[in-house]
Amino acid sequence: MNIGKELNYQWQVNVLGRSALRLNRILMARKAGKGQLGKSRLLTPPLNTSIWTKELIGQHYLRGRYANSHGKVAWVTSGAPIEFLKALDFYLLYPENHGALCGAARAAEGLSIEAEKAGYSRDICSYARTDIGAMLSGKTPVGRLPKPDLLLACTNICQTVLHWYRVLAHHFQVPLILIDTPFIYTEMTDHAVAFVKAQLEEAIIVAEKVAGKPLDPRRFKEVTRLSMLASELWLELLRRNRHRPAPISVFDQFTQMAPIVEMRGEASTVDLYAAMLKEVDQRIEQGIGVVPEERLRLLWDNLPVWYRLRYLAEFLGAHGAVIVASTYTNAWAELGPQMDPEHPMESMARTYMYPILNRGTGEKLATMRQMIQDYHLDGAILHSDRSCKPYSVGQMDQRDRLMRQDDLPALLLEADHNDPRSYSEEQVANRLTAFMEMLEAA
Q1: Are 95 and 129 spatial neighbours (Cβ–Cβ below 8 Å)?
Q2: Contact, 77 vs 262, CB < 8 A?
Q3: pLDDT per residue of the chain (442 residues) written in tens, 0 to 9
C-alpha cells in the first residue's frame, strides 16, 4: 500500500469530502424546513430523507474519484450478483447508474455523440453510448471515474452488456467475468440454478486473484443479509403506495432507487430505507399525498425518461394523476424474498436469474395485472423505449391485452430513457393530454 496515496484518500474522502457533503445536507434540510426544497404548486415537496439519498450518492462517487489509490475497483452491470465482490472490498461502479445520472444531468446527449463519432451506432442502448462516450472522452458530471481492475457482466438484463463490457475489457485491458443466466420461459429449474452457481464459483476464484485475498464466508453472508434487508425495505416502501392518496410517486422512486442498485450490501442503504419508510408512514397517517388532489392512479412500464422526470410528474399532477406503481422499481423489490444469507451461493444463483427481463413477456403482463389489483389502478403508461429493446418487446400486445381483457386504458408512449434526441415534447404532450381526457371522461 502506498502510504501517501492512502492518506490522501482518507483526507479527500473521509475528512474534506464527508464534511462538505454533510454541510450540504444540513443546508438542504434547512431549505426543506422552510418549504423551499423542490417547490411545486402541483406536487407535495419531496421526502426529507431524499436529502440523505443525495448525500449517499455523493459519497459513493466521491469514493470512486479516489478509489484506485485505496483498493480494487470493479465495474458491474446493474443486475449482476455483486455480494461476493462487496465482501472482497471492491469499490463497485455501475455504468448504467452513471448513465442515468448523466441523463438526469442533461449530459448524456453530448457523451452519446462522442461514442457515435468513434463509430458506435445510435441504435445501441443509450446507457452504453453514454458510458462509452465518457470512457473515450474522460468527461463526466461526477468529476472522474475510477479505472476498473475487474469487469463483471450478467446477461440477466440484456445481451447488450456482453458486447458493451467486451469493449470496456479491450479498452482497459482488465479481466472480464461473464455470468450467463438461462432465460426463464416457465419456471426456474434446478439444472439452471446449478449452472449459474458453477459460474459464480469460478467468478469468485478470479475475483479473489484480483483482490489479492480469499473470500471470507462470514463477510459474504453479512453482505447478502444487508442486500436482503435493503430489498425488503424497498419492497415495503413501494407497497405503501397501495394507500390512497399515494404518499410518493414512481418519479420519486426513480430518484430514490439509486442505493438499492449501486449500494446493495451496505448498512447505510438499510438505514436510509428504514428512515424513508418511517417518513412515508408519517405521510400516510397525516393523509398527505404526493398529488394533493389525487384522482387517477397509474402504472408505469419500462425505464424512466431521465431528462424529463419533473416535467412528466407535473404534467400528470396537473390532471390529478399520480403514477403509483412501476415494473422497473418493482424489479429491485422482487429480489429480497429470493435471498438467503445462510446459503449465499445458491441464493445468488436463484436471485439473479429472477429479474423481470430474464423472464417471459407473459410474466411481465402477470406482474402488471397484479399491480392493477394491488394498487387500484385506473390506467397504464407503457414507455416504448427506443434503445432498451428487451424491455420494450411485447409492449404492443401487453397494452392491447390490458385494454381488451382487463378493461384498463393503456397508452404506448414513445421516447428514450437517456437520449433526448429521440424524444418529442409536442408528441408526448399531445398523447398524454388525450390519454388524460379519456381517463377523466371514464
Answers
A1: no
A2: no
A3: 688 888 888 888 888 888 888 888 888 888 877 776 777 888 999 999 999 999 999 999 999 999 999 999 999 999 899 999 999 999 999 999 999 999 999 999 999 999 999 999 999 999 999 999 999 999 999 999 999 999 999 999 999 999 999 999 999 999 999 999 999 998 899 999 999 999 999 999 999 999 999 999 999 999 999 999 999 999 999 999 999 999 999 999 999 999 999 999 999 999 999 999 999 999 999 999 999 999 999 999 999 999 999 999 999 999 999 999 999 999 999 988 999 999 999 999 999 999 999 999 999 999 999 999 999 999 999 999 999 999 999 999 999 999 999 999 999 999 999 999 999 999 999 999 999 999 998 8
The count of structural domains within the chain is 1
The DSSP annotation for 33-60 comes to HTT-SS--SSSPPPPTTHHHHHHHHHHH
CA 129 to chain centre: 18
How far is the C-alpha of 237 from the C-alpha of 239, rounded, in Å?
A: 5
Tell me the backbone φ, ψ of residue 50, rounded to 5 degrees.
-65, -25
- Count of all residues that appear for the chain in the document: 442
Q: Is 323 helix (H, G, I), strand (E, B) or coil?
A: strand
C-alpha cell read off for 120? 458506435
Hey, CA dihedral for 298, 273, 145, 354, is it positive or negative? Answer: negative
- Read off the C-alpha cell for 281: 408512514
Stretch (H or E) spanning 384: strand 379-385
CA 372 to chain centre: 22
Range of the domain at 13: 3-441
Instruction: Report the distance separating Cα 5 and Cα 307, nearest Å.
Output: 37
Residue type, 133: G
Distance, CA of 79 to chain centre: 9
Q: How many CB atoms lie within 10 A of CB 230?
A: 28
